[in-house]
Design brief:
Length: 329
């Protein structure tokens, strides 16, 4: 009996190892033909990170800078420069350029020549990539080394907060755009629950599906403590509780009222509560009326092809009005 059990366990272990090897993530080329400003590269965690740097025109002396951190999945900010795409990162970058900031757009690992792969990174790994980007900017004479911040969207909001908490002496401010403040499991469940409702499922069916998904995530999370199977294995157990309370720099957080992936009713409240309990005083939280996860105007349930390819009223204005260095020349 014991011998048979050992054989079964050995087969399971071999199957898991084979799965991990065979499912190795592949590098991605996404809008790689598009050049955005000065193309740069630097080292992080034993690999090369690719990035694009835009600098404000007519700026005398070193400029403050902001590092743009994208969200989940295989994605590149370069897509925002395609004429047939919503210019999300392009518009945000231009808003900071108009304020006199240099803007560094950071590729994810495994995208457009950047070494390694995001699918094998934890959030701490991505935060370390942000630290490497800060160190690179601090090495440049055209950048003000004491005024470098981070702007993250969606999953990038988790990363911006974690980076600010882990490296307080390097990051001067953060901007969180639809950044979650719940656990990864809760964020995924919120997204799935909204999708099911928007798809027309009744409340009883939604509740049952959520219950099953929560159980499966529990099993997956337990397995992930032993072996990292798939990308979710690296991030599923992440809980941001206690991260915001360690942030000392100024924070701007913008949420969309109709964001079904990161509902502000829970996420904005959690961020505000943690910051207030920690005595943080320089933060501004904005909930943009009628805006979705990408800060376009829409209802909670919508079809992407029906949206106007522009930002909801007030979004760019909120970025333009906020100044983390208001007491400095």
């Amino acid at each position: 009996m014991k011998k048979r059990l050992i054989i079964v366990l050995a087969v399971v272990v071999l199957a898991v190892v084979a799965y991990v090897i065979l499912s190795a993530p592949k590098p991605a080329r996404i809008a790689a033909d598009i050049r955005v400003g000065e193309e740069v590269a630097f080292e992080s965690q034993g690999g090369t990170l690719a990035a694009s740097l835009l600098k404000p025109e007519g700026k005398a002396g070193p400029s403050p800078a902001v590092i743009m951190v994208v969200g989940s999945g295989s994605y590149s900010y370069r897509s925002s420069w395609r004429p047939d795409r919503f210019p999300f990162w392009k518009g945000i970058g231009e808003a900071f350029l108009a304020k006199g900031y240099a803007v560094l757009f950071l590729e994810k690992k495994g995208v457009n020549g950047t070494g390694g792969h995001w699918a094998r990174q934890s959030f701490a790994d991505r935060a370390a990539d942000v630290r490497a980007a800060v160190d690179y900017l601090r090495s440049r004479p055209d950048i003000d080394a004491q005024r470098i911040g981070v702007c993250g969207h969606s999953q990038g909001g988790w990363i911006a907060q974690l980076a600010a908490a882990e490296y307080p002496d390097k990051i001067a401010f953060i901007v969180c755009l639809a950044g979650p403040n719940v656990t990864v499991r809760r964020q995924i469940l919120d997204d799935m629950e909204s999708e099911w409702r928007c798809g027309g499922l009744g409340e009883d069916k939604v509740r049952n599906k959520v219950k099953r998904a929560r159980f499966l995530f529990g099993v997956y999370g337990a397995v992930s403590n032993v072996v990292k199977v798939g990308y979710l294995g690296h991030i599923l157990n992440y809980d941001p509780q206690g991260v915001a309370s360690r942030i000392r720099c100024p924070i701007l957080a913008i949420y969309g009222e109709n964001d079904r992936l990161v509902p502000p009713a829970t996420n904005a409240l959690l961020l505000e509560d943690e910051l207030m309990q920690a005595g943080h005083k320089r933060h501004q939280i904005v909930i943009l009326p009628g805006a979705n996860h990408g800060f376009q105007s829409s209802a909670v349930c919508f079809k992407w092809e029906e949206l106007e390819q522009k930002f909801a009223p007030g979004f760019l204005e909120a970025l333009a009005a906020w100044e983390p260095f208001e007491n400095r020349e």
